[in-house]
Amino acid sequence: MSPPTAYRWLTTGDVAFTAMLGRVAEARHSVRLEMYIYEKGPLGDQFLEALISAQQRGVSVHVLIDALGSQSLPEEYWNRFTAV
Predict the structure, then answer these.
(1) pTM of this structure
(2) For the purposes of burial, counting CB atoms within 10 Å of the CB of 2, is it exposed (0-12), middle (13-18) or buried (19 or more)?
(3) By CB distance 3.0 to 4.6 Å, which of 24, 57, 63, 70 could disulfide with 38?
(4) Element (DSSP H or E) covering residue 75
(5) Distances (CA, A) of 4 to 17, 71, 79
(6) How far apart are CA 69 and CA 72, in angstroms?
(7) What is the tens place of the pLDDT at every residue in 31-59?
(8) Bridge partners for 34 per DSSP
(9) Per residue in 13-33, pLDDT tens?
(10) With b meaning 16 or more CB within 10 Å and e meaning fewer, what string describes 16-54?
């Protein structure tokens, strides 16, 4: 794991999401993910898989998503996550 820094400028969504997924993969104690817009699709599903994987490693995972910004998610989308 890289040493902590005061900040890291993430210039694009691709850079930010790659960094976020990397941190979820490295997590050993807890993950706290907060999103305004969350959609089912390749990126959303990648996050879901990473969160499930972290949870299976014994990491405490908490997810907060905005109901308005994520209203297109099917009701059963998180079933696999909550079943772990």
Answers:
(1) 0.85
(2) exposed
(3) 70
(4) none
(5) 18, 35, 34
(6) 8
(7) 999 999 999 999 999 999 999 999 999 99
(8) 64
(9) 999 999 999 999 999 999 999
(10) eeeebbeebeebeeebebeeeebeeeeebeebbebbbeb
